[in-house]
Amino acid sequence: MTLLQHDITDFTVQAYANGELKTISKKDILGRWSVFFFYPADFSFVCPTELEDLADHYDDFQKIDCDIYSVSTDSQWVHKAWHDANEKIGKIQFPMLADPTALLARDLDTYNEETGFAERGDFIVDPDGKVVAYEVISSNVGRDAAEILRRVQASQFVREHSDMVCPAKWQPGEETIEPSLDLVGQL
């Protein structure tokens, strides 16, 4: 089963962001691009390296009107404690969503019933609330924020230019491909 074009569930969750506990809901994400970045747990090993990488690229995501939401099954208070205790996590400005009931993790099929944790998954969600790209990988392999940024940029480009496709390693400003007209509807 694919999650492409999956309409993200109607959700309301608690979050820690910029020194405050907040409530984030589906209505908050509509109208802008979003990346939902699932990771197994706070106070872990690979996760802080990934989240620091996202924090280092956060301004780049904001420049292209894309919000980042990191998500784990930890509570908002654990997110705050981790943010306060870890130099790498202390850089984070984007909301850290608390998903202790795994509502979002189950909706996007990253929840591991055996461990109670989310698997590593990143989901690019368009302004309509639909998944347009995603990747779920092994819990022991970290992800690259620059590659996620590139995939958001490519997703934005093809949404705006529905008659074009982006080749591998495409970067904004580079040439795209115009597929033959008889194949456009089949891609």
Automatic annotation (TrEMBL):
Keyword tags: Antioxidant, Cytoplasm, Disulfide bond, Oxidoreductase, Peroxidase, Redox-active center
One Gene Ontology cellular component: cytosol
Keyword hit for Cytoplasm: yes
Active site annotation, chain numbering: 47 (cysteine sulfenic acid (-soh) intermediate)
Protein origin, superkingdom: Bacteria
InterPro entries with a match to the protein in the record: AhpC/TSA, Peroxiredoxin, Peroxiredoxin_AhpC-typ, Peroxiredoxin_C, Thioredoxin-like_sf, Thioredoxin_domain
Domain Thioredoxin positions: 2-157
Subcellular location(s) of the protein: Cytoplasm
One GO term (biological process): cell redox homeostasis
Record-linked SUPFAM superfamilies: Thioredoxin-like
Gene3D superfamilies: Glutaredoxin
Keyword field contains Disulfide bond: yes
GO molecular function terms noted in the UniProt entry: thioredoxin peroxidase activity
Family per record: Belongs to the peroxiredoxin family. AhpC/Prx1 subfamily.
Protein name per its UniProtKB record: Redoxin domain-containing protein
Organism the protein comes from: Bifidobacterium choloepi
